[in-house]
Amino acid sequence: xxxxxxxxxxxxxxxxxxxxxxxxxxxxxxxxxxxxxxxxxxxxxxxxxxxxxxxxxxxxxxxxxxxxxxxxxxxxxxxxxxxxxxxxxxxxxxxxxxxxxxxxxxxxxxxxxxxxxxxxxxxxxxxxxxxxxxxxxxxxxxxxxxxxxxxxxxxxxxxxxxxxxxxxxxxxxxxxxxxxxxxxxxxxxxxxxxxxxxxxxxxxxxxxxxxxxxxxxxxxxxxxxxxxxxxxxxxxxxxxxxxxxxxxxxxxxxxxxxxxxxxxxxxxxxxxxxxxxxxxxxxxxxxxxxxxxxxxxxxxxxxxxxxxxxxxxxxxxxxxxxxxxxxxxxxxxxxxxxxxxx
Length: 342
Description:
Layout lengths: L6 H12 L4 H8 L3 H11 E5 L5 E5 L1 H14 L10 H12 L5 H10 L8 H9 L22 H6 L9 E2 L15 E8 L8 E7 L5 E6 L4 H15 L1 H7 L2 E4 L8 H5 L10 E4 L9 H13 L11 H12 L11 H7 L3
Parallel strand pairs: 3-8, 4-7, 7-8
Antiparallel strand pairs: 1-2, 4-5, 5-6
């Protein structure tokens, strides 16, 4: 038996009230609690005027049904998540602690044994409408509003082309297709605090979106060179050369020792090819820029990077490499690596 009063039951209420029956009798007749009948009578009672122009009140089944229909249309669709507090907790944990986007959360819900699965649009809707207690729009990453660059400043900035460095125009054309592993983009993420010199060196692989993040003591060319040398020593010359076919970076002074970055520190020979973007054209390193936004969710601007341990940075790298990406149909960078036997 449904808990809501039906249209037929409303006509029974109207008839029995006309016969002088009490609400408790009516409740027994239609199988409802008497308080339900009391509330129904109150909602459906209207003022009418008799032929002698005197006003009186009576319950009208038609009016009560119309009120019920209007409320049913206005209440909207019930939440799919309902009272599933476990799923709500999983969503909040992924967004707050792992910095996942609604799309990434949706992928993880489908992969897990969660009883309720939601699409990204539904999760966005829940957040915007405040249905998740501990998550708001401030927990989501939004695109930064783009502003036009100062053309005069751009024209004055020195180009590494004058120093003999290779530009992105000289980079092999097949790199643009993202079909071959081993082509990276490189950048640094700074603290934002004047007293802190620490920064992060970020390497982003173009095909799989694999990330390598390393903490540097300062944003100097020497520190960048030392870290690239450390990576080669760890991998070995042949493995490094296979993994890092090309590296594309911006015109930052931390990449000024580009000639030494290309040359092996363990054997005689070239270990990679370095290419520079055009000044003020961060879109030429789009993968790198998007990754930096993910990193900023863990390392906000203005924080002191020196306070983060190497283990903290490694955890951030692991989280990003395990992050489900819409571009790959929900697969992560690590899963793309395994899929391509890399």
